[in-house]
Amino acid sequence: xxxxxxxxYTEKLKEHFMSPKNIMQGENTDEFDGVGMEGNLQCGDQMxxxxxxxxxxxxxxxxQWKTYGCASAxxxxxxxSEMVKGMTLDQAFHISPKEVAKELGGLPxxxxxxxxxxxxxxxxxxNDYYTRNGMGDKVKQEQVKTICQCMSITDHDIEDAVLExxxxxxxxxxxxxxxxxxxxxxxxxxxxxxxxxxIHFGA
Amino acid sequence: xxxxxxxxxxxxxHPEVKKEMAEAMEMFGNPSSMHAWGREARANVEDARKxxxxxxxxxxxxxxxxxxxxxxxxxxxxxxxxxxxxCIPGTKMRSTIITTKIEHPCxxxxxxxxxxxxxxxxxxxxxRYGKIDLDQLESMLGDDVGLVSVMxxxxxxxxxxxxxxxxxxxxxxxxxxxxxAVQAVGKVPVDVNALGLDFLTISGHKIYGPKGVGALYVxxxxxxxxxxxxxxxxxxxxxxxxxxxxxxxxGKAVEMRQLEMAGEAERLGALKxxxxxxIEERIDDISFNGHPTDSLxxxxxxxxxxxxxxxxxxxxxxxxxxxSTGSACASGSLDPxxxxxxxxxxxxxxxxxxxxxxxxxxxxxxxEYMLDVLPRTIKRIRDMSTAYIKGGTHxxxx
Lengths: 203, 398
Hints:
The complex is a heterodimer.
Chain A (H helix, E strand, L loop, with lengths): L10 H8 L15 E7 L4 E10 L4 E10 L2 H14 L4 H5 L3 H7 L8 H4 L1 H16 L13 E3 L4 E2 H9 L5 H8 L9 H16 L2
Antiparallel strand pairs in A: 1-2, 2-3, 4-5
Helix pairs in contact in A: 1-2, 7-9
Chain B lengths: L2 E2 L10 H9 L12 H20 L7 E4 L2 H16 L11 E5 L4 H12 L3 E5 L9 H7 L4 E5 L13 H10 L3 E5 L11 H4 L3 E5 L10 E5 L14 H4 L7 H39 L4 E3 L9 E5 L5 H10 L2 E2 L1 E2 L2 H4 L6 H5 L4 H5 L1 E5 L6 H20 L15
Parallel strand pairs in B: 1-11, 3-4, 3-5, 5-6, 6-7
Antiparallel strand pairs in B: 2-8, 7-8, 9-10, 10-13, 12-13
Helix pairs in contact in B: 1-9, 2-9, 3-4, 9-14, 10-14
């Protein structure tokens, strides 16, 4: 007979859940250079990321957070806060949920949507820093568009999947799980699939 | 310390059930066979039937053994649509079903399916304690209603319904009455005749019996159509060779419940009261869900705003304690518990809820351990929660 299996999560994720890094102490966000908040309590997850920035080099020197969320939310924000320290604002802005998930050794499919708020909150904090420091022109709007709301799959994810070999809607679903819940995004996803196939492969 | 506080999900086998099943491992005959092997299996199946029937005041020929509580519930709802479609000769049943918003998904999803197949389904609301409104039931009842299906005790919050009154109302307007009693049978006395039921669902593994076996009570003379067809087993009411070992285990489980049930209710009630009091004293800003008195003796559902349920569950798991949660994250869907939402609990409190369900082997020592671990677990989660930052929802409450 088998013993109790591991959690649905990787060891790395479990580590970060058991001992989360860089949790913001106290309740005062005023002492940070940038503050970003995403999500809400009614939906079951909310993230806040705060950063300190070296103004000369625009390098993130400190990143702390608070989260209302499940194990994957806690762990992904924890690992994200480790990843961004030492990065420039521009580098940090371009971290994708995929990279965070990869760093954690992967996430169960039904948990992917729990992990995407961390990098969103980080981008909001970076934009907040720009705004506060008179660099409103540098504020970058979210350039990604979420196509599949249920699984939080963006146009960028679709492009990645095409680059990695997806050529049909079925293959796209196999790679991204897009459209596997309500299926409403199918027409838009199919149009993007054709577009990226054309751009990258002339097909 | 290992603490199992998830008895509404499933229970360990009663040692006596385990013993009896282990002894019966060699029994492999098919109860339908006429030879000695078959007759041995038949004798044990019928003995179990007698015990189950006796336990709920039913006749032996009114008990159908099935594969689970879910199968029993599916059978009842599905036979109803068979009857309306005159699959059962000579019967033309009415096409409306009344049920509640807090039933188990096996009733709710089957009801939805029946709605697609032409049935009209009406869902009763519940109040903040999880009780249905009898006036609303009265207003829904009419000569179009063929079946009323209301669970006896809710699995998530423990609240009991007044099944006797509901059954009286249903039957006086000519509808059949079903109750899903998987959480109630074995915890409170149940008599199908006193309650006036046509159908009742029992599950083996909720009462210290084996998984994969349940029983459906069907009042004699009630229209019936099998859910699994193609065999003469269970008098043609459930095809498939009987789960002999499971049925034997269910019979023994019921016998043990009969012996232990009465004293246990009082003992578990005291443990639950201690748990409730301890949580109230040691943790700020909490709320209990379900009915404060008219609920299952071992079920306590509590919300911790600012702390998400799956996190609570997993931190408790790391400390050796098993509970379950109404949070969406633990279920894999995006919606929190439909039961809590139906009682008017807001989504945040539903996401931050856990269900503690005690059982026959629970002790005061375990309750004390829980009361030691839970407050620091909640504090730990709330300390990292956005709900308590400046300007956050609960910032002022601590």
